[in-house]
Write a structure and sequence with these properties.
With 102 residues, the chain is an all-beta fold. Helices cover 0% and strands 54% of the residues. It contains no helices and 8 strands. It has a 4-stranded antiparallel β-sheet with strand order 3-4-5-6, with no helix packed on it. A two-stranded antiparallel sheet has the order 1-2. It has a two-stranded antiparallel sheet with strand order 7-8. A hairpin with a 4-residue loop joins strand 7 and strand 8. The radius of gyration is 16 Å and the shape is globular. InterPro entries: F-box-assoc_dom_typ3. This is F-box associated beta-propeller type 3 domain-containing protein.
Length: 102
């Protein structure tokens, strides 16, 4: 099911279901980092690493991105956030990683 809520959460709207052709585990927490031109950037944790994927629901296609490095080593002292967008200068999609030191 697809749910949309306003913030602060006063209403939750149910829009129906979207067919998903990849394995969604009920024990995995998926994060959506953004959506551009029908592409959805999402991630999940898998055994100590963050897996980032680009999903195209209209083509039933999933692209898993290569692992990224962590220049700070220890992950308990940093906060990592991602952004997803389209760059018209290069006519390409971009994922931006923000690293914040705690």
């Amino acid at each position: 099911m697809v749910y949309v809520m306003d913030v602060p959460c006063h209403h939750i709207y149910q829009y129906g279901s979207i067919p998903v052709d990849f394995n969604l585990s009920e024990w995995t927490c998926y994060y959506i980092h953004g959506s551009v031109n029908g592409l959805i950037c999402l991630s999940y944790q898998r055994i100590g690493e963050l897996v980032i994927q680009i999903w195209n629901p209209s083509l039933s296609a999933m692209l898993t991105l290569p692992r990224y490095g962590n220049p700070f080593g220890c992950t308990d002292k940093i906060f990592i956030q991602f952004g997803f967008g389209f760059d018209p200068e290069t006519d390409d999609y971009k994922i931006i990683k923000f690293i914040i030191l705690k």
